[in-house]
Amino acid sequence: ENFMEYTNLVPIIGTILSITKGYNCYSQMVSLRTENGTVNFMVGQETIIIDNKQLRKGMRIAAFYDSSQPAILIFPPQYNAVMITALGREEQIMLNYFDRNLLAADRSLQLNVAGNTNIETVNGQKFNCNIRDRVLLVYYTITTRSIPPQTTPSRIIVF
């Protein structure tokens, strides 16, 4: 996998307010309530939806868009969703390249993988290889107050 394409993905976290029909039968417009107001996402056939979950009103999600693509300058902001994942109430997420020490490329998070950390591929299969030096989607709840913050993720998806 070319990890460069994933480094452009930026998450917006919020709760789904509404889901309406998109441009065609295969797309839908998802309105998210975020800390900074409403953000709309177009969800199409190409959008990766982790766990193939059906999106529903009230669901807390992280929707990732490609920051290298030009954005339409309208209000509320509208993006094409490249990837969406459902999140638990306290759950946080990070998509980043983690080096051989499992430190994020921007040094913002250090992973401590535990025996009960679920490690899988994007299509939900077990990942039995080394997760170092890869792009990882990390699900976690608490971090230490150290620098960098450390966390024991509940789940890791390997790209």
Secondary-structure blueprint of this entry?
Elements: H1 4-7, E1 9-21, E2 28-34, E3 37-43, E4 48-49, E5 60-66, E6 78-80, E7 83-86, E8 92-98, E9 110-111, E10 118-121, E11 134-140, E12 150-151, E13 155-158
Parallel strand pairs: 3-6, 4-7, 9-12, 10-13
Antiparallel strand pairs: 1-2, 1-5, 2-3, 5-7, 8-11, 11-13
Question: Care to describe what's here?
Answer:
With 159 residues, the protein is an all-beta fold. It is built from 1 helix and 13 strands. The chain has one helix at 4-7, and strands spanning 9-21, 28-34, 37-43, 48-49, 60-66, 78-80, 83-86, 92-98, 110-111, 118-121, 134-140, 150-151, 155-158. It has a 7-stranded mixed β-sheet with strand order 4-7-5-1-2-3-6. Strands 8-11-13-10 form a 4-stranded mixed β-sheet, with no helix packed on it. Strand 2 and strand 3 form a beta hairpin. The longest helix is centred in the first third of the chain and has 4 residues, at 4-7. The mean pLDDT is 94.
Distance between the termini: 7 Å
Helix content: under 10%
Give the SSE order as H and E letters: HEEEEEEEEEEEEE
The chain-level structural class is mainly beta
**Sheet having the most strands:** 7 strands, mixed
Low-confidence stretches: none
Number of alpha- plus pi-helical segments = 1
